[in-house]
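thread: overnight batch results

M.L. [08:02]
morning all. the overnight job finished for the chain we discussed friday. pasting input first so we're all looking at the same thing
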Amino acid sequence: IQTRASLSPRGGLEEAAGMVPLPVSHESATTANIKAMKETKALVVDTGTGHFKCGFAGDLWPLYVVSPTFRKPTWEAGSNQRETLVGKELQNSSIPSTPISPVRHGTVVDWNSVQDVLKCIFKAEMKIQPEDHAVLMSVPSLCSTTEKGKYAEMLFEGFHMPAIHLAYQSHLSMYSYGKTSALVVESGHGVSYVAPVYEGYILRNITGKVDYAGLDITYYLMKLLNESGNTFTEHQLNTIQDLKEKCCYTSLDLQQDLSLPVEKQQVDYKLPDGHFITVGKERFLCAEALFKPVLFGSQQQGLLQLTLTCLKKCNADVIRKMLGNVLLCGGSTMMEGFAERFQKELATMFPCDCPIIAASPQRKAAVWIGGSILASLNSFQDLWVHRYEYEEHGSTCIFKKCF
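M.L. [08:03]
and the structure it wrote out:
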């Protein structure tokens, strides 16, 4: 199955050379349906497992990065208090509540909760009326036809948006690099992908997916720390996440790092209560799980093996193109040394092809940035799916214009 990108391989991305988005232009064939679009910027929304990223087309970075963890307070019967807490309200609240994770391993499992979270973000955080804005929303690279229809239903019927566009996350990550052909290696919070995109077409039949990513590394780091004498619990995952981002790295030579004197392995980390702990070999052992997920109990392929499996399914011409444009995306690839390790091991697998790894400093938000660029291009504006089209043709028009 080959799915064409929502942007012409020639012309569109050249407008965004240097990753500088162009001003938004909202022209329409039907004035009644897009009156608001002429005066407002389109929204760009990336619904990830760990964070929802929201902002306006043409901006360089999302304005709001909010955890989709959603809590329903346990109010007494008959109470008039708020029924949901999300974002800053959730962080600042001590009210007893039930946590809900509406997105797991990149897949929506609770559509009502996703809609509730987005409603809170639009109304409470962004302070906008969603019916005044077109929206470009990312969807998983292996999203099913049914799921695409549910996204459209939520946006058109739940939020009454005047126009929408759905785009695969791998396409958007690629656009953030200004490419139209690439091997996108993406590892975020709850899921990792390896997706080949060739001349604007995502090769979905050979796209690989594994259900582990940054959250699994955080849990594995907690396990390693506890085996070293600490007593961290799941309630301290945010602390472990912060420690991972500040102190951990990917080893370029594991045996060499393990042979270092203990004092050279160690760093001190300040806990929220002001106390310090010393972190040693856990700093680099945790990252090994991305290459060997068996370390945290998963039988799935490591990211390098997943990449190799994907490339082996490509013909020779496509392999050469992919190896010359390997793009790292997602927060889990941000760990110090990851890009160099990936380059080193991929070069060992393909010694005659000189793989080229690209690792943008902004790759943590690559999907959102690509969406911001795409939605702001003049050449893209005819690809909005308007509400009148959806009302007349249903989800069929989504597939014609977006995929």
